[in-house]
Design a protein that fits this description.
With 393 residues, the chain is of the alpha/beta class. It has two domains: 115 residues, Aspartate Aminotransferase, domain 1; 244 residues, Aspartate Aminotransferase, domain 2 (3-Layer(aba) Sandwich). The chain contains twelve helices and 15 strands.
């Protein structure tokens, strides 16, 4: 049968027919433990009853009206997000890239208020923010940018987890208006900065009148053991970008703003036809209520510690394992060489994972894991890694 899809993904020749909880079944009936969660999207696993009920109920009533009118579910969702985040206002789009685009537009408006005509946003090496023109320009990956030059101007790249580099720029330039940073780099290899990094960025932004803009698209919404990764350091950013786990697979993105940043947008400054429609918001409201009711934020921290401890013990003594690191259910196993073959080997063993930055096995399982399922991830992944590293070519 001919394939009419554009060739934008190196797809694995495997299709799933249905899922339940942390499990997926393929067309041959084989069962897989999903330790990737749709790349941190399915925080509540697959076919969660609360999300399914919310989507079904809303689809029977109203899916879309447009943002020309009030959307009560959007208002409810924004209130809930601001309550758990400490932010003031929310703009809804359809994806993480759109959330970051909204943040970058806020930075440009902030520049206008400061009478800066050619503003600069500081972004990090090894970062990932999306594939639209502005977000891929902000991303620290030449692979993502290749073929799409000229890039959007106005970004200056600095090393991640390096406050002296930011301070040096603050002393040398007067055109900087914002810092855009992932509290934990996901696509970059589960890179966790030193404790205090975000606090020092906050202080620098306050000194320089820069917006502190955080991309929590992968690490936010309970995954790290707090609702948001910045809450581990008890700071309040100016802008936070969310998507992925917000509606458990229904497309939605959110740009949250605080203080002066929350007042920058006015009518006509930004918009989205589908952003925050009733169906997506119903799913997102159900997700947040379920995470709260089932205490899944605390659970993510406990499960993450369990998995990392288990993997560290199981892989001890293998010199080619460079690190087991993570925070909550955001876990990376760094090897000393490319290991993309591990994806297929893990599938054969019934576990879904992926490899990022060529050498880092990435685990982003749903927050609803049981202890036994967490232990199964440890057993299978550790065995697959050991077999890969210790079996002679």
């Amino acid at each position: 049968m001919p394939n009419h899809l554009m060739n934008t993904y190196a797809r694995i020749p495997l299709a799933f027919t249905h899922g339940e909880g942390v499990w997926l079944w393929d067309e041959d009936g084989k069962k897989y433990l999903d330790a990737l969660g749709g790349i941190a999207v399915c925080a509540l696993g697959h076919v969660h009853p609360a999300v399914t009920a919310a989507i079904t109920h809303q689809a029977q009533r109203l899916i879309h009206t447009s943002n020309l009118f009030r959307i009560p579910l959007q208002e409810e969702l924004s209130r809930h997000l601001c309550q758990i985040s400490g932010m003031d206002r929310v703009f809804f789009g359809n994806s993480g890239a759109e959330a970051v685009e909204a943040a970058l537009k806020l930075a440009r408006l902030h520049a206008r208020h400061r009478n800066i005509d050619a503003p600069v946003v500081l972004v990090m090496e090894n970062s990932f923010h999306g594939r639209t023109f502005a977000t891929l320009s902000a991303t620290g990956s030449y692979k993502v940018q290749a073929g799409f030059q000229p890039l959007v101007q106005g970004f200056v790249r600095v090393p991640y987890n390096n406050i002296p580099a930011l301070t040096q720029i603050a002393n040398e330039r007067s055109d900087v208006v914002a810092v855009l940073v992932e509290p934990i780099q996901g696509e970059g290899g589960i890179n966790i900065p030193d404790f205090g990094y975000l606090r020092q960025i906050r202080a620098l932004c306050d000194q320089q009148d820069w917006l502190m803009m955080l991309d929590e698209i992968q690490c936010g919404l309970g995954r790290t053991g707090c609702w948001f990764a910045y809450q581990h350091e008890q700071v309040i950013p100016d802008v936070v970008c969310l998507a992925k786990g917000l509606a458990n697979g229904v497309p939605i993105g959110a740009c949250l703003a605080h203080g002066q940043a929350a007042a920058l947008f006015g009518p006509g400054n930004h918009g989205s036809t589908f952003g925050g429609n009733p169906l997506a918001c119903a799913a997102a409201v159900a997700v947040l209520k379920t995470i709260e009711a089932e205490h899944l934020v605390v659970r993510a921290e406990i499960l993450g510690d369990r998995i990392r401890t288990g993997l560290t013990a199981a892989l001890a003594g293998i010199p080619r394992v460079m690190a087991v690191r993570g925070k909550g259910l955001m876990i990376g196993i760094e090897l000393d060489s490319p290991c993309k073959e591990l994806v297929a080997l893990a599938l054969q063993a019934g576990v879904i994972l992926n490899v990022t930055q060529d050498t880092v096995v990435r685990l982003l399982p749903p927050l609803i894991l049981s202890d036994d399922e967490a232990d199964q991830i440890v057993r299978v992944v550790a065995q697959v890694v050991r077999d890969f590293l210790l079996t002679p070519d």
